[in-house]
Q: What sequence folds into this?
């Protein structure tokens, strides 16, 4: 197992889900995490500031040409698509909306699948539309690992359901379990008395 | 799929090489993820089996090349996009421009012209339009032709009117156009001092000395080396103390010409080219 990046897509209810998920990652988390959260084009940086304040990893807005670093969470800026390049840098685009969304989860996931192939983990969380379904399928086809928040545990189950309909995800689990799975995939498990 | 990804990456590079050799348009230093996305999109809607076959088509079919050219240029824009930017122009830049007897502005990558007309409206409200020459350039003839006509679809006007007000507009936005069925036609006096011209930032040189350059959301599609070249062009074209306006998410931070500029309104990515003042204290 040598996953090099995690990409996450979410929409309605995403902030609450991320509030639970991001604090799970320890300060030495070995890979970058790139997130598209649908937001109003006029939203300010409050969400990022807040999530940064409750997380051990660094949480920031993605900048164009920025080189991906471990233990860092990158958010697509409002009103820009976010893409990942083969050379592990980030690109922004103002091309037209995809699935009525800019940033669009599909745009991020598809570019990530081309840049990272099977070394990628794609995660779809709560949301009230179907953005990300195509992108997650692309990640799966490229050999990546796919996780979807179980629709019944999501604030809005539409986006998870749409993703499940197009992909046979490796895991369909609650947000708490997603945190545990991702942390355990990358961090050595603590010693236990058996 | 894995092998497929590798092949697609190779085919994309060959495709760009073919376009350059045949037509002289150089997209080889564009952001690859972006170009790949555009090529794959064209592939999926044009019923061609592979990028290699599409390369064959583009070599033989100039009309198809025109289509590709449109695909590669992002023509999504709006009037008074990022109203805060125009507020900053009014507050921080206009007072500077008012001190000049004559103003030359280069709007690079103007696409269909919405942002050029926005600036013309602002200049008119500040009493500067008559003494301003605007060069509005793009590499795409088709969008230039559209920009020149100054005719836009009525469907966006509501949003643009809101943008205009949030940008600090002093009049009523509807004063600046005439509605005609599904279109709005911008007032002719706005474009009297605008020269729409073909210019390719990737391959062409500087054509004039100017007081202000506006180039927003163009550099995000360029690799860093190409960004360096283009900012170099801007540096050459700007008079000392001249203004450079980039997109909200673009910056000079990593550019090799960064030391030639100082931020004027950092948050809105408005920069000023430094004056060359000899350092008298240097020993």
A:
């Amino acid at each position: 197992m040598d996953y090099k990046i995690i990409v996450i897509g979410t929409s309605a209810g995403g902030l609450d889900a991320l509030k639970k998920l991001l604090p799970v990652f320890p300060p030495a988390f070995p890979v970058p995490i790139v997130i598209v959260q649908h937001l109003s084009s006029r939203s300010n940086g409050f969400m990022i500031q807040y999530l940064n304040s409750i997380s051990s990893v660094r949480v920031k807005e993605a900048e164009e040409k920025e080189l991906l670093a471990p233990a860092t969470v990158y958010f697509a800026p409002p009103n820009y698509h976010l893409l990942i390049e083969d050379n592990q840098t980030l690109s922004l685009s103002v091309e037209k909306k995809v699935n009525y969304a800019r940033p669009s989860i599909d745009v991020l996931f598809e570019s990530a699948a081309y840049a990272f192939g099977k070394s990628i983990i794609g995660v779809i969380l709560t949301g009230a539309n179907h953005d990300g379904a195509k992108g997650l399928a692309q990640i799966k086809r490229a050999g990546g690992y796919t996780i979807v928040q179980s629709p019944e545990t999501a604030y809005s189950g539409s986006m998870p359901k749409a993703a499940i309909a197009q992909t046979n995800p490796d895991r369909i689990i609650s947000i708490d379990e997603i945190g545990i799975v991702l942390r355990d995939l990358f961090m050595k498990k603590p010693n236990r008395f058996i | 799929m894995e092998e497929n990804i590798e092949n697609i990456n190779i085919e994309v590079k060959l495709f760009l090489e073919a376009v350059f050799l045949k037509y002289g348009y150089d997209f080889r230093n564009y952001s690859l993820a972006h170009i790949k996305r555009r090529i794959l999109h064209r592939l999926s809607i044009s019923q061609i089996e592979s990028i290699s076959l599409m390369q064959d088509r583009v070599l033989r079919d100039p009309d198809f090349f025109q289509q590709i050219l449109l695909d590669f240029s992002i023509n999504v824009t709006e009037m008074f996009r990022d109203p805060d930017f125009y507020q900053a122009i009014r507050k921080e830049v206009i007072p500077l421009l008012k001190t000049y007897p004559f103003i030359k502005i280069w709007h690079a990558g103007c696409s269909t012209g919405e942002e050029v007309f926005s600036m013309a409206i602002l200049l008119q409200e500040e009493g500067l339009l008559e003494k301003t020459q605007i060069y509005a350039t793009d590499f795409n003839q088709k969008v230039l032709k559209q920009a020149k006509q100054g005719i836009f679809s009525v469907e966006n006007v509501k949003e643009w009117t809101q943008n205009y007000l949030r940008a600090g507009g002093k009049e009523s936005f509807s004063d600046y156009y005439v509605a005609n069925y599904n279109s709005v036609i911008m007032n002719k006096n706005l474009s009297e001092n605008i020269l729409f011209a073909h210019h390719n930032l990737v391959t062409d040189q500087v054509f004039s000395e100017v007081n202000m350059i506006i180039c927003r959301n163009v550099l995000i599609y360029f690799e860093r080396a190409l960004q360096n070249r283009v900012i170099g062009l801007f540096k050459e074209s700007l008079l000392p103390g001249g203004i450079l306006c980039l997109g909200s998410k673009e910056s000079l931070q990593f550019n090799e010409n960064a030391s030639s500029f100082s931020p004027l309104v950092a948050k809105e990515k408005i920069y000023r080219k430094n004056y060359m003042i000899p350092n008298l204290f240097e020993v």
Summary: The longest helix of chain A spans residues 105-116. The interface with chain B takes residues 63-65, 77, 80, 83-86, 91-96, 107, 110-111, 113-115, 117-118, 141-143 of chain A (CB under 8 Å). The radius of gyration of chain A is 15 Å.
